[in-house]
């Protein structure tokens, strides 16, 4: 089948690589000429286990190509996948500019029936906006072309994204057209042959499902972290408590490991966006607001323990930090607890010596402003530039602004 993916960030690249590996002809479109040049040269701009080899194999066999030519991309695909960024606005709402820009691009160049699939994480009602934007662009052209809009959210875990795509626990499809559901079933059939994992629902329910899933997981994390702090105060062993509650099948063991807070490209952004969506609908989301508050406080717990251990005398001390990404097997430092810890240490005059496994994180962390580092036991003084991870530069989704 012919698939075009708009956006060559995390979601776009994983989706493109996996769909092409199943035998589909996939074109990835992005406005970033430098990124497309690197991809065509064999350089993968993000770290995800197994992704580089998957892209190389399918590119070499002619099933996966990368281009900046949006018109060629629209003409190529029966399925037009929107996988561009939806960065948070200052009020927490999702910025849909890139999503709607792609919708206009599709309407500008579409000449035959297409299935427009939104994989970007978007608020409820976005599919209606995409449909209206494509329709208005066609009308302005004086063209009449049939198309369907589908909500097909991704549920990829960074560090295990390929396995998640190849062997999904569910594939959520939001559509109001049985014909489109049948086309999606054919597209995903190679990934669901042993077990039918596709769940078809209406567009708005599919959009809300993505936010609801991430918000639920974030809630479990914050609950367990708050319980950990209580256990420490009352002399209980949080690991034994975790075993005791996790053995209940209604609770389970997933996402109940205590830690120093969640980060990354999804949970912080999606919880904020869901809180904003609830507010727009006239509902205050008290629980999710508390989830955010607990998580923000948890990121400072480790610094408090270090400070108390040294009696508040941290100036001039060298503190080792092992790992900077928000979770293992990724290079993503967005919203990572390590960033809060290091800023707090620097604020009191401490020096950070960080060990970073990923070559991409090592490069991007080196832009931290005016700090002394130790990468693989090699001290370096860095320039005064904002600390930003390579994944933050590339984005979980990539911004495509084509027309």
What is the helix tally?
A: 16
- What is the beta-strand fraction? 5-15%
How would you name the CATH homologous superfamily of the largest domain?
NAD(P)-binding Rossmann-like Domain
Number of domains: 3
CATH-level-2 architecture of the largest domain: 3-Layer(aba) Sandwich
| Helix-strand category | alpha/beta
Strand order of the largest sheet: 3-2-1-4-5-6
Rg = 22 Å
Helix content estimate = 40-55%
Write structural notes for this entry:
The chain is of the alpha/beta class. The protein has three domains: 2-201, NAD(P)-binding Rossmann-like Domain (Rossmann fold); 211-298, N-(1-d-carboxylethyl)-l-norvaline Dehydrogenase, domain 2 (Orthogonal Bundle), CATH 1.10.1040.10; 301-393, 3-Layer(aba) Sandwich (Rossmann fold), CATH 3.40.50.720. The chain is built from 16 helices and twelve strands. The protein has helices spanning 10-21, 33-40, 51-60, 70-76, 97-109, 126-141, 161-166, 178-188, 203-234, 238-246, 267-280, 286-298, 301-309, 337-347, 359-365, 390-394; strands at residues 2-6, 25-29, 64-67, 79-82, 114-118, 147-151, 171-174, 198-201, 318-322, 351-355, 372-375, 378-381. It has a six-stranded parallel beta sheet, sandwiched between helices. Strand 1, helix 1 (10-21) and strand 2 form a beta-alpha-beta unit. Helix 11 (267-280) runs antiparallel to helix 12. It is globular, with a radius of gyration of 22 Å. The two termini are 25 Å apart. Mean pLDDT is 87; it is low at 360-370, 372-395 and 397-403.
